[in-house]
Amino acid sequence: MVSYGGGANSTALLIGLHQHRIPVDLILFADTGAEHPHTYAYLEVMDSWLKDHGMPPITRVYKTTRDGKRLTLEDECLDEATSSIDTHTEILVQKGIEALLSGRTSFVIAHRLSTIQNADRIFVIDQGGILEQGSPAELMKKKGAYYDLYMAQFAGLE
Question: What are 48-51's contacts with CB under 8 Å, separation 24+?
């Protein structure tokens, strides 16, 4: 599963996966309803490229109300699946994500570190560059950027 943002980095990731013959089961685009018009036009171009190269199409996901009304970014914060839920629900969502990703190679972009606590390898990215990488335990030992983020999110909770 790959989270696709519609930009150059996401496109490069998909092309790299194709070039290295790494299979992709699912490509998700979180459609906030507030994207630039060129992003939507580019999705069609990218879908065509994916089809031509034997990859799955981009699946657009968006949030709706119970009555089916589509919510835009202005209506609801869609930074991540766990951005606006209580701790108990977040735990249930995390268990579901773990089951979904089990046995698969996945690229996850996360704002909450709880989303990636069981990752084999984490890349801490800032301003388009990789600051550090490693397992959660390795990154905590380094006491670098990941450590600082972790302490900011979890200090006093353990």
Answer: 50/14
